[in-house]
Here is the input.
Amino acid sequence: PRPFTATDFAAAAERMVAARRPERSRVLVVDDDPEAIAALVHALASEQIEVVGLGDAHRLMEALAEHRPDLLLLDVQMPGPSGFDLCRILRSMPAWQELPVLLITAHVGLEFRLAAFQAGADDYISKPVLKEELRARVQARLERARLSRERAERDALTGLMLRRPFIEGLRSRLSEAQRQQRPLSLCFLDVDRFKRVNDKYGHLAGDRVLTRLGRLLGARFRREDVRGRWGGEEFVVGLLGETAASAKAILSRTMAEVAEMTFDGDGGESFRVTISAGIAESPGDGTTMEALLRVADARLNRAKTNGRNRIEM
Ligand code: GH3
Ligand code: MG
Ligand code: MG
Ligand code: MG
Here is the structure.
């Protein structure tokens, strides 16, 4: 094989960055000094970061609800509640416990730094603020928050999206497809006789089956296709731009791959599994996600009664 060159590496890195499609993050800045807000906006605002300024700390709760920021920059000394007080209050509210908060203080003394962490802040920045340092600290926090958000949306066993975030993703794909007057196919997949797999080969073996099927589904299809674990041994795939017929062709290739896989039972035996699927397409079978899920589920049941290891559309 051809050696992996620096150009290949650069191209791969570019694809990875493009695949991440970073959404814009929003930072809320609270400071009683309009000049300080202007300076922070100037330092932070970019293509990736939108900055919203707030001069009155009394309006913090409203502003949080309205702008739903990804990160909060709080001045410490303000008329009314201090940045410390506000931070402590936020940490006692379930909705804002995880929000990254950076305190900005003119004091660099140890007691101020300790008070910042005791109030529940993630970090502090001292005035005068160094633009590069501020940007680096904010970006690091935003990246951490993004990663933990992403992890919370994924099922640990299969690496696929959990039902709720998956449904959100599917909803936006569906309206995208309808706007572009393109079809979208929804596939319900269910492992055949999985209870028997657990009974015969053990629950850990069953878990390994789900992990490998999840990885396979995660690796196949296109990036914009949505794949999720519906629950138990059930998966859902949303294929943008595919009719039920073309989705069936794509899915049968994946099912053929599954049929080729061998799994190890907890007692060392080797076994195989099959999958059944039901497909519904938009707009032909329905235009809402609920309707498509209902039709796909009914067709999955038909695949089961018609003998399993098959796709119904
Ligand atoms: P069918 O072909 O009709 O789909 O039969 P089935 O046995 O697959 O269907 P059923 O719904 O009766 O059983 C599903 C089983 O999947 C039951 C449950 O114990 C098992 N299961 C659900 N989630 C997990 C999991 O995370 N790990 C393991 N090992 N088993 C699971
Ligand atoms: Mg101030
Ligand atoms: Mg099932
Ligand atoms: Mg099953």
The chain has a mean pLDDT of 92.
